[in-house]
């Protein structure tokens, strides 16, 4: 192999290896979307003191059709 083709081939191999180690482009985008979804935001609905019995830290802590949102008493599970 000529010396002129060796350097670009080596550079391409290193770049491909780094991309594979990083998990690839699609995995990175998917992780960013999951992080945005997992953010606990302020509850949009009106809350009362009885809802404070259902604390949470993440959306996964809540039952189906519920989200984790922030209120005056901390993060709680609330129906959609």
UniProtKB/TrEMBL annotation:
Q: Where is the signal peptide?
A: 1-23
The record's keywords, sorted A to Z, are: Signal
Domain of life from the UniProt record? Eukaryota
- Write down the InterPro entries for this protein, in alphabetical order: WAP_dom (IPR008197)
**A Pfam family hit:** WAP
- Residue stretches making up the WAP domain: 43-79
Q: What is this protein called?
A: WAP four-disulfide core domain protein 10A-like
